[in-house]
Amino acid sequence: MYRNVRKLSNCQIPVGASGVMDYSSLKRSELFTFFHIVEVSRLKASVDGLTRVSLKPGGFQEFIDIEVGIDEASLLRFMTLIMDRHWVGDVCSVNPFAKDITKTFMATVFPEEDLPLAKDIIDGIWNLTGASDKVYHLKQPTEVEESYDPQVVLAQRVYLGEKDRFDMLMPSSELIIENTTVGTKQILRLTIDTF
User: Could you read off the pLDDT of 133-151 as tens digits, one per residue?
Assistant: First the structure.
């Protein structure tokens, strides 16, 4: 039934034959358990045949929405993390909670085959600090080279609100990071589409 197993933290998550995670595995993932994510609504869409599931984390609910599209086999076809732009931060200060849920979201949702291709983007966002952020280290950090990969830099600039959109097409998925406005609310939306 399962082709392989993705290792996240100390739990093993089965993934479908295509490398795409199924919804029940997502519910057992670190993303769900650590952030205490719960399902708030479910809607069957008639046009594309996907069931759309709205989710909320246990904390910071007023700033975070998560949407999942699952097919008839319960495989994830898209997953979107939506965060209030002001809550995420900018070049002056980056919210560590926003970075944490973003990192875990991407590490969980990317198909296994694409995870090595997305690693630099995930690390680039995780390592962002704002100009006025204070970072305290329990141990002396090792020298980490800053990435000058144009794709990583563009993804970071979009995450910080300096650019509008970043797209990255991989063999089994596509990552879209975009700053947009919904009504009067400015948001940062990260979507991973799987195929």
Answer: 988 878 876 665 566 899 9
Tell the residue number behind the tokens 């100390």, with chain if given.
10
Q: In whole angstroms, what is the distance from residue 133 CA to residue 175 CA?
A: 27
Q: 124: which 2 tokens?
A: 């680039």
The more confident residue out of 7 and 115 is: 115
Any idea how long the chain is? 195
Whole-number percent of the chain with pLDDT over 90 = 80
* DSSP three-state, residue 137: coil
Output the pTM of the full model. 0.87
In 3D space, the residue among 101, 170, 159 whose CA is nearest the CA of residue 130 turns out to be 159
Helical segments of the chain, H only? 23-27, 30-34, 85-88, 96-109, 115-126, 150-159
Strand segments, DSSP code E, in the chain are 4-8, 11-15, 38-44, 51-56, 64-70, 76-84, 165-169, 173-182, 185-194
